[in-house]
Specification:
By secondary structure, the chain is an alpha+beta fold. Helix 1 runs parallel beside helix 4 and helix 7 crosses helix 9. It has helices at 7-14, 30-41, 46-58, 70-76, 80-91, 162-167, 171-177, 219-222, 227-242; strands spanning 2-3, 23-24, 27-28, 64-68, 95-97, 107-109, 126-129, 141-148, 157-161, 245-247, 253-258, 262-266, 283-290. The strands form three sheets. Strands 1, 4, 5, 6, 8, 11 and 13 form a seven-stranded mixed sheet that branches. Strand 2 (23-24) and strand 3 (27-28) form a beta hairpin. Residues 129, 131, 142, 264 line the site of fe (ii) ion (FE2).
Length: 299
């Protein structure tokens, strides 16, 4: 699931004059999508790399990919021109958008030592979840671009095939997971992701292997659930861990996750974050994608 960039492609991308992106509401403007596509399609070996990426995300047994953009980040610096290239790759998968009206398209995930350690930008174990779990239309893809790994060497990413985990559970547990008995978090002023879903079922009524597994293991400690539903959710969380893969994102790695198939999270950062200057701490940039033509494309 690691996709390297052929050196021919790399050298051509370094000089590619992609313009600044424009948004139309919370979505990447059509004019930007088209301009990036036209520029990138003309670069040797781009189309085959984009096809490999799409196959990794949607093909049998797939669901996530890591594009290795580290040498590009090295030669270009991880500034705006690099972010345009990463957005160009993302736009080959689906339409980039920002659900948060007051945030830029790429949202910072830094490290905050005072935050709930288990939540985004916290220093602890970030348990398996899909992003925007309590929206009726979670983003089809979540993407994380690594600008700086943890200088102390912690925080590997974890990924797990959600439908495979569900398939290992008993029928009784699956029945409980299909009940609208779960809730998590707050929902305020979000765009392009539908309405608040509260309470929600973890499994929707679609056939096995299809639909979102609408789950966050963070609810186990932070939401009040009935004992039976809490037990079912705990079993799912355990199966996700049993099936997990884990790896460290390096500078310039671009992790793209198909939220219909794979749940993600992150192991704890290394201890001692307090003494790392804020400017040296781990930094990811997050971008969400919406599949064109799918429900929820309209702003
Ligand atoms: O820090 C990470 O690697 C993952 C963060 C994450 O999943 C999130 O903020 O939603
Ligand atoms: Fe996440």
């Amino acid at each position: 699931m690691f996709i390297g960039i052929p050196s021919e492609l790399e050298s051509a991308l370094i000089d590619l004059p992609l313009p600044a992106w424009k948004l139309d509401g919370s979505f990447l403007a059509k004019s930007t999508m088209e301009r990036y596509r036209t520029e990138l399609a003309a670069v040797p070996r781009f189309e085959e790399t984009a096809a490999t990426l799409r196959h990794a995300l949607t093909g049998e047994g797939g669901g996530y990919a890591v594009l290795r953009l580290g040498r590009l980040a090295e030669s270009m610096g991880a500034g705006d021109r690099f972010l345009r290239l990463a957005a160009g790759f993302a736009a080959e998968v689906a339409v980039p958008f920002s659900p948060f009206p007051n945030w830029p398209m790429w949202k910072d995930i830094g490290v905050k030592v005072d935050k709930d350690p288990g939540k985004s930008s916290g220093i602890g174990y970030n348990a398996f979840h899909i992003d925007l779990v309590n929206a009726t239309l979670p983003p089809d893809y979540t993407t994380l671009l690594c600008i700086r790994p943890d200088p102390l060497g912690g925080g590997p990413s974890i990924l797990s095939d959600a439908h495979a985990a569900v398939a290992r559970l008993s029928e009784d547990t699956r029945v409980l997971l299909a009940e609208a008995a779960y809730h998590y978090g707050t929902f305020f002023d979000l765009h392009g992701v539908g309405e608040e879903h509260k309470p929600f079922p973890i499994l929707d009524s679609s056939e096995p292997g299809a639909g979102f597994v609408r789950f966050t293991a963070k609810m186990l400690e932070r939401s009040e659930l009935s004992p039976a539903h809490a037990d079912a959710a705990t079993e799912l969380a355990e199966e996700l861990v049993r099936g997990q893969v884990s790896f460290m994102l390096e500078r310039g790695d671009y992790l793209i996750v198909n939220q219909h198939r794979v749940l993600h999270g992150r192991e704890a950062l290394h201890s001692g974050q307090e003494i790392v200057p804020v400017a040296d701490r781990r930094l990811l940039l997050q971008l969400f994608l919406r599949t064109p033509g799918g429900a929820g494309t309209a702003v």
